Every structure is written in structure tokens, then in C-alpha cells.
Amino acid sequence: MKKLFTLFTGLLLAACVPLLCGCDDSDRKVHRDGDLSTEVVIPTSMDVFKGMEITVEGEGFEQGDQVALRAETDLPAQTTIRSATELSFRIPDEVVDQTVYKIVLRRKDDYQVLGASRLTVKLAIRVALEETIRGFWGGSASIAGEGFAATDKLLLKREGEAGPEVSIVAVDATSLRFGIPAGFPEGTYEFTLRRGDEQQVLGTAALVLDYGGTVPDREGASVKGIVHCRGIGVADVAVSDGDRIVKTDADGFYHLASDKRNGLVFVIQPSGYEVPVTEASPEFWHPLTADASTVETRNFKLEQSDDESYSLLVATDIHLANRNTPKDYKQFADGFAKEVTTAYNGSARKVHCLNLGDFAWDGYWYSNKWALPESKEAVADFGFHFWSVMGNHDNDPYVDTDFGAEIPYRTVMGPVYYAMNIGQVHYLMLDNTVYVNTGGTTGTVGERNYRRQFTDEQIAWVKEDLKLVDPSTPIVVGFHCPLYSNTWNSLTGKLTVLSALDGGTASISKLLDCFAGRAAVHVVSGHSHVNRNNQSPTHPNVYEHNVAAVCGTWWWTQQYAKNNICTDGTPAGYKVFDIDGKSIEWRYKAVGLDADRQFTTYDMNEVKKYWATDATAQAAFAAGNDLRGRENDYNGVGENEVYINVWSWEPDRWTLTVSENGRNLPVEQVWKRDPLHTISYDIPRGAANKGDLTFPSGMVTHMFGVTASSATSTLEIRATDRFGNTYTQTMTRPKAFTADPSK
Fold first, then answer.
1. Are residues 678 and 558 located together in one domain of the fold?
2. Under 8 Å CB-to-CB from 463, ≥6 apart: which residues?
3. Segment 418-446, tens digit of pLDDT
4. Does one domain contain both 286 and 148?
């Protein structure tokens, strides 16, 4: 490749020559009556490769002139005189890296030093390695640069490990083209050029590949594609449009006769593989943009994965809306997001997260300019798969039909119901809110009302999906609204399980009957902003984990009490499921607290004192409205009672013991509001808002009481979960009543 030097005045060269000529030229005749050539400028440094052709412009070149590179000795350079104003010479193979060479023009016995330059000798120069190189398996990709040779080798290294050598299929004056074999892994690589014993690192680039073959047509199919792993088709993988499910053939091809009702197609991730992920979003679906008469091709990538053991984070009700003080997105970033990225990004153990809806908040989409795209961006730094379902607040508040209101979700997040396999567990991610939104229209937010139920189309799809699942496979079913809630039976002094879906038991059975004869089914749900765990009273193989909210009380309590607490007193958090094969264990994780913190204790002597004497509490109770009668919350509590709120209590599966001076005290479950939530939200909010509360404390399903022998005795408290994990606290009394959940 020629290098053209821009013409400058010869005076600059003349001034530089005495400084650049360091060797003894007394044995040479120097042309002094006038330069052999003029108007030549040589850069003081150059990147070159051996054999590179350099072109020099000037005045006075003659046929027969020769160029040499002079350091300790002269290195003759093959020279071509092109005209009186242009010559070229080639960099000799003997050139030494980082050496300053005088560029000498020889004419018979005369010579002239044209200049001097420090030469950086490389295998290739002007290499332009893109940040992302895109190509196809079985195809090739190119790297721009000069100096490549057909005999060169190209090595790729990933994450510091010695990588494979790829074949160079073509070289020209401006680029190198290398082949990409089928099965070659995608990823970020360091590219190294090797020539004999020499090598040069060209840079780092992400290699992003796709299937480059042709998917055959099939009569009646409006959607077709291939499911492949590194360009090689994977057989027997399920693909769906949300109505129909088909499987790939032996070559990995699928064909769907789809009416494209849902406007998308998705792959059901098979065991032993995982879909790619971009900024935490699993790439398991593609939009469909044409009508049913047009055939669309949508291919799916898979990557082999050792997914037998992993941690599953179940999070719900994030409720980002660009509101509150501090802003909800800042509380989210500083709390949940910081905790899970610190703990799990780069974890040696595989991690997945299930987001159970109300990711955004429909009432603020347009007024606060924050909707699903902004919420999705808030988790972009999560270094693991972030699977989502929609909640009632993830619908478009300008639309008064369920299907129409879901369009933004399907456009940004993907299907509203789908399935995947992770290891030996099958996951069903469903939608059980039917958005009604009375009065909603373009430019007008409706009432945002909804029904809690599953559509018939979705139930039909679930049945088709389960035909492909072995009955012994554990199933995790995720959706937003819980199946069950609880009330207190005052006659028995125990909790009663109630149906929480509209339509009651009949509506629940519509879904749960699909799991008849199946192994364990774990339902995970949100919506309630409290922790509840219920065995289905009608389906013994179904257990529901209703998980407390990431946002606590809709991000309010940080403003009032510098904490994040749910309406049942549970610190905001998420549930962690550790899965090994078919074995599943779990526990609740409060954001910002140690994993071994599983309950809060209250010295009710101090709580009652607060109720009776705190000025803010008195002002709030006096305001009435939603706080009317709340001054009587603990009237029936006796002296020296202690309350223990066991956040993720499971009836009949956890035990709680309290001892005083080595003697166990009787423990009874109580049906009361949580004092911590009341002082963190109800009282300060009520005092400031004339007693009006949007999210008041609810009756707690996991509160227990004991009576101590005195106001100053120390209690030893031990809670044991179903897996034998124990959580303890030594409670020194009197215990101050504060808004700090870590106390």
C-alpha cells in the first residue's frame, strides 16, 4: 500500500537535517551546490509493515535514484522512480522496530538525507476492528487494514483463555476475510494476527452471528424459521404464536400456520439451553409485522447451558413511575438493583429472575413520561435473565379493551403468557388481569379497573403446553394477582384461606385443574404487597408463594421513615429459590438486611406507650377518616406482651419458640396490624394528609404473640423454616420502638 506524504516547504527539511544526521557521512560526497531534490517532507514517525510501499513527492527525482534506510548501516530499499516529482520505495525486511532511520536518496556518488523517521514495525497497520463484527455461521467476516498476508493466521481468545484459530479465506490490499465455521461460539474476543513466530494483537470485538441458511417453505405456514445452536439446528424444540404450539423437525426448522393474532412468535426454551440475553432481556421472542397472508421468517438462537443448579430471584411490584421523594427509580437503583447486581452479576452459580408484574404504573405513563421502556432500561445492568409477566398496572391507560391495552407490553416486553424450561423445572408465565379501564380513550386515562382471571384462550394454550411436559417435572407458575388470600376465623383462632380471583373457586379451578396428576406445582404471585404462603385447599399438589413487593408501600416509607416496608410489616424484598435438579428450596430476602433476618420483634409495652403519647400519632388519630379508631389498635394487648412478625411464615411448616430464663413461653398467632408499618406510613401520612391513606396497614397473617413475666426480661426467639434453617434473636427488654427494620 502506498503512503503519500503531503508537500511542505524544503526549508523545514533543511532545518531538520543537521539534527537528524547522527552517523559519519565523511566518506560520502554530499551534493551541496543544490539539493538533489526539494519540496520533500518525511514524517518524524511512521507505522509500517515489511514490504510496505512508501510514496514520496518532491522535485528533481531522476531515473536511477535509489533510497536507503540508514541507522548503523544502510538498508537498501527497492526504489521506483515514477516521475520527476514522485518516487516510491519498499520497507526492507531487515528493518528493526522502534529504530530511527534516515531516509537517504542516492544518485551515483551523491546522496541527500531527505529526513528521518522512527519506524514502528507491525504485521498490519491501520487496522479498523469494529466493536461488533456481525456474520453468519458457515460464512465469513472481514477486518479492515493494510499489510495482511495470505499465509497469516488469525487467533481468537475469549476471557483470557486461548481460543481457536480461524481460517483466513481472502486477503487484499485493504482487508482480511476470515471464515466462521458452524458451531463457533459467539462472544467477545481478542483478535491476534500471527505470522511465523511474530504476532500482533489487533484489538477486541464482539462476534455476533446468525444463521445464514435458507428455511424451506411449507404449504399453509405463515411463520417459519430455525431454532439453532451456533448455526446447527436443534430438533424437538417448541415454538408458539400464543395460540398454537409446534415442534422443530430434525433439522431445527419449524412452520406455524398462524393468524398472527398476538403479533409475535416465541420459542419455549428447552432444558440444557438458554436463549441469548441483551441488557437483561431474554431474546426468546420476535415481533410479527405482516398479515397472515405473508410468510415471515423468524429464527431463534440457543446456547448450551449447564442449568441443573441455579438461583431464581422472584421479584414483584416494582412500580416505577418517576414519582415520590426520593424518586422511585432512585430508591430502586440504590436498593434492590444495587443489591442483586452486587450479589449476582458474575456469579459462578446461574441466576434467573422472575418479575411478576406492575413493573411500571399505568396512571403515570403519560403524565410522568415513564412507562415500560423506561422501566426496562432500569434493569439493563442486571447480568442475568430477567423474565417478566404483566400486572394490571402494565396496561395502556388510554385503551379500554384488555387485548388493546396489552399492545405496549407485547411490543416492549414480549408475550403476555409463555413458557420456558430451566434445568429440570418447567415454567409457565401467565397473565391473570383482564383490563377493563372504563372510560379510557386516546388522551384520557380511564378508571384502570380490571378483573382478576385467566382468559379462555390462555387456559387452552396452557393445556397444549402441558402436553409436552412430563408429569414428573416440577412446575413453577408465575403471574401477578394471587390465587388466595386469608382472613381470621375468630372461632378457631386460625387463618382461613380465601379465593382471591374474581369468580372464586371456579375461576381458580379453571387453571389448577390443568395440573391434575402433576408433581409439585409452585405458584408465585405478587400484587398484594404482602407475604403470604398458602397450600391450595382444593389441589394438594399446588402451593402458592404470594411474595411481598420490591417497592414496599409504593415507595412511600423512605420519605417518612427512611425505610422500605410493606403493608404487613415485611421489609421490601424478594424471594430466592435455590434449585438443584428437581429439588427446590427457598427463603425470603429483605433488601438491605442479612439473609438470616426473617422476623421483627416488638415490645408491646413500648408500642402502646408510643400510641398513647406520640404527638404525631395523636394528630393522625384525631384526623379521623382512614385512621378513625386506630388509636384502639392494641387496646386488647396485655402488659409485657411481645409481638413477633415472621415475614415469610408458612402455616404448619415453620415453628416458632420463645424462651424466658430457659422456660418456653406459649406462642399464639394473632390478627393485628404491624406497628412498624403504621409508624412508617399510616401515622406520618395520616397526620400530613388529614387522615386519608391510600395504602393503610393491613391485618398480618404472620404475627405471633407471647407474654413475658416482666417488662425487663430477656427473650430468646427461634424461628425454624421447613428446610431446618433457624433464625434467632436475643431480645433485650425494654426494647425501643423505632422505624429501623434492622433492630
1. no
2. 514
3. 999 999 999 999 999 999 999 999 999 99
4. no
